[in-house]
């Protein structure tokens, strides 16, 4: 057989050119190298460490966070429906708490066709009704289940809505700097224009309305049709939580400027100072805004996910978004586009149902559910404080506390020699630092340049997800690496 000499149809020059411009640092070059090292370790190659610690992504179960039992019990019964047959009742009642059996039966009954069939393209009506009740309980304001769309994780929802907003390459979407790169990547793919607004690190990554105004005016003056503002609250990678007053001003700004507000609220239960900085949803803030025109007229989309919080079911791909104050005709188009993918997967939908309606006081599973949830939460809080302290104790490093989310985003000041060496290798200085960290410790983090940062500042983002019994070693390794790095590159 002779090899084909026919030119490939698909080459780097012939694919969709927008795809070439997409960057996603969370799974970028350093993360790819970390996977290679993991493989090499497994094949006996020696490194100064014996395992790779993936702190590049908020993926709790990858770092052995235990799934919540109630969720898995109900999910497994929905999957293996034979266990719900009459003749298995006694056996199954010894293995599963009664409320998990009842719940699985209820879910299957309302789904009708079970989990192997497509559901409604917006997600099963019964599960959207659960989400609507959850929103009413959370915010004290009703939600219409027809305005709720279940998704394959928040990512799919964000992509759908950014797609809806993009009319041309003149379409501008305001995104924070630093930002979670889902936004920059999706805008690059769609060919829309990112309009960056800076968060203020020194004051705890706060958002200043004055700077939003300056940014939008400058962008519009250049001919960009700015149509939406993205807020990530609690922040990723920055971990800050907005207060109600600031949120009111953001809502007013959006209304006055004619912007759709996209509120990414996937970390709404990862809140570590609830007394001083509680989570307030944008839906609640909007419904309680003093201006009635805003309550009834501002177009708001809020996103949530089963991947974060104490749920951590990233691999199941479940989430939802709620559209408020949208034109009915536009909602029909949103539905049409959802129907092109037929439906979000049923495993994710079921977890959304369980997350939004977990065991309540008095239910058989409640005590265990509460203990598991509180155990994860308290541990995350302890780890976030400990790592923040470790970063702040490093020479030339400052780190704002994580008021929420799963990340810390320390600022690092690097010696001139390191910056020059990085440049000679065509790398950003923080990427160079993170690569050195990976090779020395096995810890994989993401350089600040992957999220965007103020010029001439360097950062990295690390999760605080490594297991608690390994956490002190993890912290000690990072401290030692940093000190050694400074010695190696001291001027
Ligand atoms: C701010 C933010 N939004 C959205 C997502 C996407 O989450 P998923 O698609 O798993 O729901 C993430 C994931 O890390 C995130 O950090």
TrEMBL record:
CDD domains, per the entry: AAT_like (cd00609)
Cofactors (names): pyridoxal 5'-phosphate
Quaternary structure note: Homodimer.
Keywords of this entry: Aminotransferase, Pyridoxal phosphate, Transferase
Species assigned in the record: Phycomyces blakesleeanus (strain ATCC 8743b / DSM 1359 / FGSC 10004 / NBRC 33097 / NRRL 1555)
First and last residue of the signal peptide: none
GO MF: pyridoxal phosphate binding; transaminase activity
Name recorded for this polypeptide: Glutamate pyruvate transaminase
Presence of keyword Transferase: yes
Sequence ranges assigned to domain Aminotransferase class I/classII large in this UniProt record: 99-465
């Amino acid at each position: 057989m002779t090899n084909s000499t026919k030119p490939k149809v698909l080459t780097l020059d012939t694919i969709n050119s927008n795809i070439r411009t997409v960057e996603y640092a969370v799974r970028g070059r350093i993360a790819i190298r970390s996977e290679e090292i993991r493989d090499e370790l497994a094949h006996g190659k020696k490194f100064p460490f014996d395992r790779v610690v993936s702190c590049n992504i908020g993926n709790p179960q990858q770092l052995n966070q235990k799934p919540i039992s109630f969720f898995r019990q109900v999910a497994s019964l929905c999957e293996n429906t034979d266990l719900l047959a009459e003749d298995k009742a006694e056996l199954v009642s010894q293995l599963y708490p009664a409320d998990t059996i009842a719940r699985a039966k209820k879910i299957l009954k309302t789904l009708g066709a079970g989990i192997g069939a497509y559901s409604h393209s917006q997600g099963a009506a019964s599960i959207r009704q659960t989400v609507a009740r959850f929103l009413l309980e959370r915010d004290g304001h009703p939600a219409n289940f027809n305005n709720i769309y279940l998704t394959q994780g928040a990512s799919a929802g964000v992509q759908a809505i950014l797609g809806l907003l993009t009319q041309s390459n003149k379409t501008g979407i305001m995104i924070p700097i630093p930002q979670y790169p889902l936004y920059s990547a999706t805008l690059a793919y769609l060919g829309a224009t990112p309009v960056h607004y800076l968060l203020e690190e020194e004051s705890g990554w706060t958002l200043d309305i004055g700077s939003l105004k300056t940014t939008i005016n400058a962008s519009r003056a250049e001919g960009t049709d700015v149509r939406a503002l993205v807020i990530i609250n609690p922040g990723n990678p920055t971990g800050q939580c907005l207060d109600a007053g600031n949120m009111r001003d953001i809502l007013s700004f959006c209304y006055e400027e004619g912007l759709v507000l996209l509120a990414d609220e996937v970390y709404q239960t990862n809140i570590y100072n609830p007394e001083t900085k509680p989570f307030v949803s944008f839906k609640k803030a909007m419904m309680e805004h003093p201006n009635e025109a805003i309550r009834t007229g501002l177009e708001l989309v809020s996103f949530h996910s089963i991947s974060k919080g104490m749920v951590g079911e990233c691999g199941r791909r479940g989430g939802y978004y709620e559209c408020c104050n949208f034109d009915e005709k536009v909602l029909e188009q949103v539905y049409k586009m959802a129907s092109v993918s037929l439906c979000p997967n049923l495993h994710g939908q079921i977890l959304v149902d369980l997350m939004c309606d977990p065991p309540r006081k008095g239910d058989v599973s409640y005590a265990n559910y509460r203990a598991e949830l509180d155990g994860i939460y308290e541990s995350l809080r302890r780890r976030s404080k400990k790592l923040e302290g470790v970063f702040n104790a490093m020479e030339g490093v400052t780190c704002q506390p994580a008021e929420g989310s799963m990340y810390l985003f320390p600022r690092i000041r690097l010696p001139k020699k390191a910056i020059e060496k990085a440049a000679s290798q065509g790398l950003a200085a923080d990427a160079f630092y993170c690569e050195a960290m990976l090779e020395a410790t096995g810890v994989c983090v993401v350089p600040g340049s992957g999220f965007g940062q103020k010029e001439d500042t360097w950062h990295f983002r690390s999760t605080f997800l490594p297991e608690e019994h390994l956490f002190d070693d993890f912290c000690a390794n990072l401290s030692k690496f940093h000190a050694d790095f400074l010695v190696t590159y001291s001027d």
